[in-house]
Amino acid sequence: MSSDVDASRTGKARRIPIYRTLPALARNPLRAFEEIGRDTDGEVVQLDLGLHRPYLVSRPEDMQHVLRDRADNYVRDGMLWKPLRRLFGNGLGMDGPDWARSRQLMLPVFSARNVATIMDELTAALTEAVEELDPYARREEPIDTRVEMTRIIHRALIRVFIGDGMSTADADRLGHAVTAGFTSIGPRLLLPFVPDSVPLPGDGAFMRAVRLADSIVTPLVRQRQRDGATGDDLVSLLCRARDENGDPLDEELVRNDVVAMFAGASETSAVTLTWLWVVLDGHPEIAARVYDEVDRVIGDGKPGPAHVPKLVYTKQVLQELLRLYPVGWVIPRSAKETDVVGGVEIPAGSTVLASPYLTHRMERYWERPYDFDPERFSPERSGRRVPSSYVPFGLGAHQCLGSHFFMVEAQLIVAIMLSRYRVRLRDSAPVVPQAAATLRPRGRVEVMLSYRSPQ
Ligand code: HEM
């Protein structure tokens, strides 16, 4: 049991009988989840889902406890992680010694200094990928935003992290495999206690996605190993790495880390950027300020790395977007030993759901939490924020490695898109969030692009 907790204040968690509110849950699971958050005001409670009874954690200090201070006790296992293990294998996407070694190896790749060195390449890849949207603008046809944002993100990731070893067609196929993996995992997420040997819907599609990812990444790893892995790309870096005995990582570990990095980077970024167009369409006054900033900063030129630090308001919009729509809406963990969180006993083996989605909507930390207000992230107001009340990239041991990369990439995408096109939603019906492995918009989000200046 955690030593820094006053045991006299320790009690059993209040149980929230979800099955009683099942109709509400079935209609809109996220709304029901939000209501629980509001009613309990961040208290650690246990959700009674029948066979499954996870604990819900959302106060900043409790998030710190679970994700940072006692990360050794709250591990990636059970819900979400057990099914994902089939895609990621051991390494960066999981926990334990293989994870620790991979994280250590990858840290320098994501440092602000290294991201600065790949900015030209990143800009070129993003510009080419965005320009492929031209035919839609010319023909006045809608684009499926998630599909196109995913394509743009994948092209950039492959170019800057994998180099020239992968064709555009393979980049798109790998992207497709990762998206299919995340989509088909749904039933296993809802039923984490069902053993792998019992088939569930989505398993077939999931295993096809795993095989497809293998068929693209494994030959690439072998190729790099044969060539001596001299390049600066991520695959070469991993192939050159040595473990504590001086031995190279085996082929499977390199494959696992490439897939985990790719999956962690692509679905999250693409879904966030899909939300961006939805939110800008719903807030014309904020959109106008973003267009103005892009025009002022970019002028008649082409967006490039030097513009990024000047896209200040655009960055605030992206930060606020990640507050209201944190794609990692719950971060599941499994308690190894019995512990106490927020005065509540968490028995060994329990699932703990740390929820940035709820933290970001708590009135005690955020004024008018449901309003979209990028001014919250102005330099003056940012300084007043309660530590760990803003956690879209997680916290502690597993905190996102790509948060800086994402911000830079997203600012560039906004600048490239908006200096070229006016973007508006095809349909003005409200877009509803859907709580899957990530917080996605429900259904297709279609946008229309029109050129801002004659071509
Ligand atoms: C909107 C964009 C993104 C969001 C919201 C996001 C969110 C997160 C969160 C919440 C975690 C922690 C998961 C946990 O504690 O179990 C995480 C981990 C991670 N993210 Fe991101 N991420 C984003 C983009 C990226 C990008 C662009 C990259 C790489 C280029 C990346 C690479 C990773 C990696 C490698 C980890 C695992 C770190 C570890 O376990 O040690 N992410 N991300």
TrEMBL record:
The reply to whether Oxidoreductase figures as a keyword in the UniProt entry is yes
Q: Which UniProt keywords apply?
A: Heme, Iron, Metal-binding, Monooxygenase, Oxidoreductase
**Entry annotated with the keyword Acyltransferase:** no
Pfam families, per this entry?
Answer: p450
Taxonomically, which superkingdom? Bacteria
Entry's family note: Belongs to the cytochrome P450 family.
Under the heading PANTHER family, the entry gives: BIFUNCTIONAL ALBAFLAVENONE MONOOXYGENASE_TERPENE SYNTHASE, CYTOCHROME P450 FAMILY 4
Instruction: Indicate what this protein is called per its UniProt record.
Output: Cytochrome P450
